[in-house]
Design a protein that fits this description.
This protein is mainly α and 507 residues long. The chain has 23 helices and two strands. Strand 1 and strand 2 form a beta hairpin. The protein starts with a strand and ends with a helix. The relative contact order is 0.15. It binds beta-D-glucopyranose (BGC). The site of beta-D-glucopyranose has 14 residues, from helix 7, helix 15, helix 19 and helix 20. Beta-D-glucopyranose binds next to helix 7, helix 15, helix 19 and helix 20. It is found in: Membrane. It is a multi-pass membrane protein.
Length: 507
């Protein structure tokens, strides 16, 4: 169905983009989004593997011993820095890799960056599945991290650039949808292999090769984005690709706009330096803050450690993995809600609704644990089931808001000149704070106990206020018109853009 989107950016006149949703664009989107599967599978698998006895006995005997001592403090039995390092080393590597990936993305395109991602990832998988010592485990995870850094840099940008403006949100969220599917599949795998002794964990880690192979093969057949082609001076190819993905020859307005954005970008020799200018402040702050807040919802305390968390409150091994599968399904289905709604109700509405829902559920979980879970008892069955229900309500609200929008918003707000560099800050902030949570959560739980949930609750209040006052709506605004239509119009951020312009004119 062709859709006309009015755009009046660029120098002067109002233009019309004819944006069909072509099968080709949808297929490219689906294939590229498999990068999200790799990320998601990793998030889901490490929690399961680190709660498996065979794995713990082989690599972390101290934790194994402690886990099986009946008298060990509930909140502390998994607190071990090395065990946390296994989970979190991936994110440190991804943090560094995203800056390299930003350069590769600009110089060699989004597609090649995705291919590189899948190769790093595959090598990491082999090392992990074959690991005979901690070094192999950690080096393997670092390579997985490099893969994730590359994929998370290239995939959301790719999706935002190929999408017709009126479905940009939905198409971009395919990435997050795949993240959630990856987590869900990992949860099922954890559940199934936990009874395969003694090598079930190897199978769990090895199966990460499947999404990586899918991305590797898929990225050979998909298109490069017209923006990336034009940016690299392949003008004819860029124009042809634009016609192909839009399913019409009438792409002049959009082509001109991309060309204009590329010209502006070419004048910027050092994108990272440019990012430090005042005029880049609005996008940069939003990109970083969205990711930091995404992590301080506390989502990964649940995603990484769901099996561990459920064991903490008294579920047996199988039951706790099964509960993680349930939260996994909720996560996937609720992300679909976001795909459907994001371009209709807008980004701000979803984020604010979720803040309310997440706050209530975090406080309720914290309250229940505070009253019922002491150092060495177990929660009664009924209460434990309530905790799982609340966790599901929490996960669902995250899944239609901060999860996908943490990736979407930074990918659509930067001008081309600073897009890949700016987005690298978003990816690396995500990775840094994912690392912080992964590394600290088990220790925080040991010290703060049920209070950990109130800690995250307090952050949710802060993020709600931030959205109300500082986050502009970006729904239905063409990606290369954000400065004009969004930043220059915002009550707070416009001063940064205006001052810069005033300065330019007074020179
Ligand atoms: C976040 C991950 C999180 C996942 C949960 C992603 O958007 O970046 O840290 O584990 O959502 O679905």
């Amino acid at each position: 169905m062709p859709a006309m989107v009015v755009s009046n950016a660029g120098p002067g006149a109002a233009k019309k983009f004819e944006g069909k949703i072509t099968i080709y664009v949808v297929i490219c989107g689906i294939i590229a989004a498999t990068g999200g599967l790799m990320f998601g599978y990793d998030i889901g698998i490490s929690g399961g593997v680190t709660s498996m006895d065979d794995f713990l006995e082989e690599f972390f005997p101290v934790v194994y011993e402690r886990k099986h001592k009946a008298k060990e403090d509930n909140y502390c039995k998994f607190d071990n820095q090395n065990l946390q390092l296994f989970t979190s080393s991936l994110y440190l590597a991804a943090l560094v890799a995203s800056f390299v990936a930003s350069k590769v993305c600009t110089k060699h395109g989004r597609r090649l960056t995705m291919q590189a991602a899948s190769i790093f990832f595959l090598v990491g998988v082999i090392l992990n599945a074959a690991a005979v010592n901690i070094a192999m485990l950690i080096i393997g995870r670092i390579l997985l991290g490099v893969g994730v850094g590359f994929a998370n840099q290239a995939v959301p940008l790719f999706l935002s650039e190929i999408a017709p403006v009126h479905i940009r949100g939905a198409l971009n969220i395919l990435f997050q949808l795949d993240v959630t599917i990856g987590i869900f599949v990992a949860n099922i795998v954890n559940y199934l292999v936990s009874n395969i002794h003694p090598w079930g964990w190897r199978l769990a880690l090895g199966l990460a090769g499947v999404p990586a192979s899918m991305l590797c093969l898929g990225s050979m057949v998909i298109a490069e984005t017209p923006t990336s082609l034009i940016e690299r001076e392949m003008l004819m190819e860029g124009l042809a690709m634009l016609k192909k993905i839009r399913g019409t020859d009438n792409v002049d307005a959009e082509y001109e706009e991309i060309l204009h954005a590329c010209e502006m970008a070419r004048q910027v020799k050092q994108p990272f330096k440019n990012l430090m200018k005042r005029s880049s402040r609005p996008q940069l702050v939003i990109a970083i803050v969205m990711q930091v807040f995404q992590q301080f919802t506390g989502i990964n305390a649940i995603m990484f450690y769901a099996p561990v968390l459920f064991q903490t409150i008294g579920f047996k091994n199988d039951a706790s993995l099964l509960s993680a599968v349930i939260t996994g399904i909720v996560n996937v289905l609720s992300t679909v809600v976001s795909v459907v709604l994001v371009d209709k109700v807008g980004r701000r509405f979803l984020l604010l609704e979720a803040c309310g829902q997440m706050l209530i559920t975090q406080v309720a979980i914290g309250g229940i644990l505070l009253v019922n879970l002491k150092a060495t008892n177990e929660l009664g069955h009924g209460v434990a089931v309530w905790v799982v229900v609340l966790v599901c309500l929490f996960v669902s609200s995250f899944a239609w808001s901060w999860g996908p929008l943490g990736w979407l918003i930074p990918s659509e707000t930067f001008p081309l000149a600073t897009r890949t560099a700016g987005y690298a800050f978003a990816v690396s902030s995500n990775m840094l704070f994912t690392f912080v949570i992964a590394q600290a959560f088990l220790s925080m739980m040991c010290h703060l106990r049920a209070g950990i949930f109130f800690f995250f609750g307090a952050w949710i209040v802060v993020m709600g206020l931030f959205v109300i006052f500082f986050l502009p709506e970006t729904k239905n605004v063409p990606i290369d018109e954000m400065t004009e239509k969004v930043w220059k119009q915002h009550w707070f951020w416009k001063r940064f853009i205006d001052e810069e312009e005033t300065k330019k004119h007074s020179i």
